Amino acid sequence: MASEAVYSHRDPMLKKRDDFEDILEERRNSSDLRYALKCYTPVLYKGLTPCKVSELKQMVLQSDQLGYVITQVSKEKGMTTDEVTGDAAAILEEMAQRLQLSTVRFFAFTLSKVFKTLFRSICVNEEGLQRLQQAIHNHPVVLLPSHRSYMDFLLMSYILYTYDLALPVIAAGMDFMGMKVVGEMLRMSGAFFIRRSFGGDKLYWAVFSEYVKIMLKNGYAPVEFFLEGTRSRTAKSLTPKLGLLNIVMDPFLKGEVFDISLVPVSISYERTLEEALYARELLGVPKPKESTSGLFKARKILSEDYGSIHVYFGQPVSVRSLAESRVNRSQFNLIPRHIPTRPSEEILSFVNDSAYRLVRAQEENMVLKPWVLLAFVLLQKQAAEDKQGTALDEFTEQAVWLRDLSRHYGAFLHWPDHIPPSEVVSSSLSLHRGLVRISEGRVQLALEQVGGQQVPGETRSAITPEEELLNQAVVILSCVSYRNQALNVFIRPALLASAIHTAASNRKQEIYNGFSFLRNMFSNEFILCPGATVQDFEEACYLLVKTGALQINQQEVLITERGHRTLAFLTSVLDPFLQGYQVVCRFLCEEDCLTEKQFIPAVRKFIIKHLLTGRLRYIEVLSSDLQKNALAALIRLGAVQKIKGGEEQGTLKLNKVMLNSLEDTLGGKLPTQKSVVAHL
Amino acid sequence: MCHTFPALTSDRSSRICSLLYKHGSSMASNSSGSDSSDRQRIAQQRLSVIAGHLQRPVEGNSGILAAECKAQGDKLDVSSERRTVPRRRQEIMKWNGWGYSDSKFLYNKKGQAEFTGKRYRLSGMIIPGLREWMESTFGANLQHKTPAAPILNSSAVQPPTLNEAFLKELKSTGIPFSHDAEDRVFRSHGHCLHEIFALREGKIGRVPDLVVWPNCHNDVVKIVELACKHNVCLMPYGGGTSVSSALECPPEETRSIVSLDTSQMNRILWIDEKNLTAHVEAGIVGQDLERLLNESGYCTGHEPDSMEFSSLGGWVATRASGMKKNIYGNIEDLVVHIKMVTPQGVIEKSCQGPRMSTGPDVHHFIMGSEGTLGVVTEVTMKIRPMPEYQKYGSVVFPNFEMGVACLREVARQRCAPASIRLMDNEQFKFGHALKPQVSSIFTSFLDGLKKFYITKFKGFDPNRLCVATLLFEGDREKVLQHEKQVYDIAAKFGGLAAGEDNGQRGYMLTFVIAYLRVVLGFKYTLVLDICRNVKARIVRECKDKGVQFPPLSTCRVTQTYDAGACVYFYFAFNYRGLSDPVHVYEQVEHAAREEILANGGSLSHHHGVGKLRKEWMRETISSVGMGMLRSVKDYVDPNNIFGNRNLL
Hints:
The structure holds 2 protein chains of 2 kinds.
Chain A: H1 2-7, E1 21-22, H2 24-29, H3 32-36, H4 53-61, H5 64-77, H6 81-95, H7 101-118, E2 121-124, H8 126-138, E3 141-145, H9 151-162, E4 169-173, H10 180-188, E5 191-194, H11 202-217, E6 223-224, H12 243-253, E7 261-269, H13 275-283, H14 292-301, E8 308-313, E9 317-318, H15 319-323, H16 345-364, H17 370-383, E10 390-391, H18 392-408, H19 421-431, E11 436-439, E12 442-445, H20 447-454, H21 465-483, H22 487-502, H23 508-521, H24 533-546, E13 550-552, E14 557-559, H25 563-590, E15 594-595, H26 596-612, H27 624-637, E16 640-642, E17 651-654, H28 656-666, H29 675-679
Parallel strand pairs in A: 2-8, 3-6, 3-7, 4-5, 4-6
Antiparallel strand pairs in A: 1-2, 7-8, 7-9, 10-12, 11-12, 13-14, 15-17, 16-17
Helix pairs in contact in A: 4-11, 5-6, 5-11, 6-11, 7-9, 11-12, 13-21, 17-18, 17-21, 20-21, 22-23, 22-24, 22-25, 25-27, 25-28
Chain B: H1 10-17, H2 36-54, H3 60-63, H4 74-81, E1 105-107, E2 113-115, E3 125-127, H5 128-138, H6 164-173, E4 177-178, H7 181-186, H8 193-200, E5 210-212, H9 217-230, E6 233-237, E7 257-261, E8 268-272, E9 277-281, H10 286-295, E10 298-299, H11 312-318, H12 325-328, H13 331-334, E11 335-342, E12 345-347, H14 363-366, E13 375-382, E14 384-385, E15 389-397, H15 400-412, E16 419-423, H16 425-433, H17 441-457, E17 466-474, H18 476-492, E18 496-497, H19 500-513, E19 521-524, H20 527-544, E20 552-561, E21 564-572, H21 581-598, H22 617-636
Subcellular location (chain B): Peroxisome
Binding site for FAD (chain B): 236-242, 318-321, 370-376
Cofactor (chain B): FAD
């Protein structure tokens, strides 16, 4: 069953995964033009009655659902229904895609050229595509790719075109619309545009959800959107957004279709195009507004070797089997379908759990390159203030050790076993030569070097220590974004290791309490399914026992002789986050009055000060992502309260006592059962 | 080609009109003013008139004596022998399958399918398309037959647990009874697939220990009194057509189980032509009731698909629905008055007024009680003059969606004909396969031409089109007018009139289809989605359970209402290679039913709950609703004398 495939963690080593096929290889050997003009006859949904884009719009405007909301809105606003219908039509016009095969062919041609210069290979699991084809034939399909780069959806459509599969319609953020020509071209290759926020706009919501549902129900095309909502700048999966998932599950829950297949897709880049861009953004240089010229410039600068891309089409997940024995569907029959209703608590929690499952499925099928593991080693060495760097053979040994560990934990590691490890390491290092420096057989992060490049023409003495720190941070955060790709592999064992580390005794219960506290604390940071603390704890114990690092009996948890290295490594995985959250707590304790807007700049200043005085080791704490997550966690736990409305709108009300004790607990100074846990 | 029914001749109608009606008030029926002898006299008079209509030898007089009941009179047997159901049912009916012994599907020597007997329009005909359809639809094959146990092996039946004291007193009343194994086994089951399968394999579980045949209401009163006195379990038995396991004896029942067979209570006690009501004993089966009423120019119009065998009491006890409910109503609309014998005594209303505002209607505790509260003995039903004119019809739609939209529109305009049914594509093909061998080249040429016209000229996809069958009834002129109205609506939804013959065959199919074990139906509001989802669920479940060939999974919309419709689902699969086909069937059926409930369907439109669907009752009617029903049962039958354990 599909649901098991998503959830099983029993022995990750045994997980069967498909082989990859490089699609660029054929492109290098045959005509791109012929490829772009090839005969394209995809398998379609069996229940499909083909219709034109304009008919689709008519169906939306004439639907009972939209009709109901139009009447409602016209009453509320005192407008005629014709006026409101006009508004709805305008919204739809702004939103709707205009999928055109000719544009797709144009993209197929240009992207072939671009991909061939940028990437060594684009590897795809063909079995996954076969499964997808089957799924498209049988049920309406929703494609859920991970989102790490602008490339993602172009790449998805490109692959589907290559394999003669139905092209998806893609939910894209409105910001693309800013790019005039490209925006329209994307529209013609299947993108539809949605506003980033439309909280209170009933009409917009109705048009949007009806549009998506009608395309999905009729099997017009697979619907594609990003569960994470936006590109992850840190390469960690983001907490899933539920809005669209809710919409696409609705037709099943209301019995309008027999089933819907959700297909998680994992896209991993050996080198992300936006690498340094993301790092700057996280450090507070605002994200450049998407513009056509900007994209071309980016393309020019980045015309170098970006290694390979791996795209894994996961096992389709049937919404029916997800809902089985969880959702009582008959509840939807007591209200006519066309009346919009707020989903009940039960449904929300079902959708939320499903979303987490799907994101985990994405994570598990994400191919990891050797470089990801090297990033772990490099960052840990850097944090240990190892100025000389590491000797290459020692570095290789550590990488190999980590390779074996991550494989035991079920990582989908793409480490070529037929090549000697030293070569694997050196070729990975050379691909990322912007981030590392090898001199005299020793490896380390290229901190100063990059600093020099960043401000050409100026002498080094002109750089303030703060600027130097920020320059180093760009390199570190770039490196962190690679390390983060594998965090999901280690996170549960790492939480356990940290809990063991801080616990005063070996008692299993106490360690569990610590684990539960940390897990709760970091649930905005990592993908940890809500309410699955016990399962996560068991999974972590299982992995550590299996690899011989721990012995666990009824009462106690014992570290074995050979387990120390593993546990030391795992603790150091979580350490930057622990310290980061502590610093945020400290900062908030020292503040008196703060608004939400002031928070990031102020906490950044505070952290820079601490870094410069050497009281804080981890430069990566400068990441605004971590700071935001920490604040969100503190708000969730009630240590900080956000005031809504009134004059003090957006002011943060701080519970100093709780912040203090949270900081101490994170630092291991307070046992977890006391005070804080009581608050939680 | 018009199949008109014998119109009322003028002389007959005048005879009816001349019938005396005493009460001046046009209100309800019998007012309390008349004394009993008076009433009896009128009844006698009326009955002799009826007897005249029946055109039987004079001796029939004794058979339909109104006020009194002859408990052990041989004379009564004379009259009931002319009826369809004898005491020993096994003489004319299959003991291990549906219907008459002489009517069945079989492959003849040439390997062609044939329907035997003389009873149906299809009887004795060769059906050339059936075999191919069976083979192509679900791989059913001549070479793979499962022979049934041919005759009942009496030694397989447990010896009866008899309550001697009860038996002794029963004997003294003179009410006929039997503890013969065949009689008992015959009354131990309905027509659920698992029940029939077990019989065919010769597996017999708990069966009633005794069968009694009361002849009238008073007999029933005596039996119930004795049962209460001696703590015996009573299970009322009418037509035996249950498809809800309602007749299964609870295996945990340790008391002696007595099956109370109502089949001998089968008289029409009186007909009130002024008020258009008939008072009938509840054991009468549908075809007899209709035939007898027809003889006096009336009908009830209640025609459930099982009407050949099902009984009036059974209809009341399960809230039955008839095919022509659009004109005549369902059983709850037809019933005016009910008499039921319960352990607490007899329940009946004091008048036969058409409507009462006297708190919740106690009839609604009786209708649908499924034999858990008592035995329905006599019912006053509405009757109608027989329709002057009857016409079948059919419409072909390009697809099921259009067909449903048309039915919706017909219901919206409240112009539904007596019956309107929509078969999906699979069922249309099945109906086609059941077409008997055509006699002339001309007919087959015509058929080919029709097919060409619809598929090639009109562009209908033969794998998507579906057919609605229609039945109009009433004045000739009105029928024709009505017909035009309905065909006009159909045309708006792309429907093409496809002739009377197709329509008639559609209805005949209803009766014959029961011989080819396919089962069950329910209802809806979201017809299209529910049909697709349930059919898909059936196909998926069959696949999951290891059924080798794709199952037949089909549906039809059989009734339309203002606010919804009734949908029948049929499924059948080839069970070759399955070790426990009945279990697979039950699992699939269970899944299908869950799917129906999840999609907003009701638990049962008219078959009742029985024991088969009990598990969903609480979620269907809520805990409070269950409590309400429970408390009625606890008051009426505290010792669970009516212990068939249906419903609750």
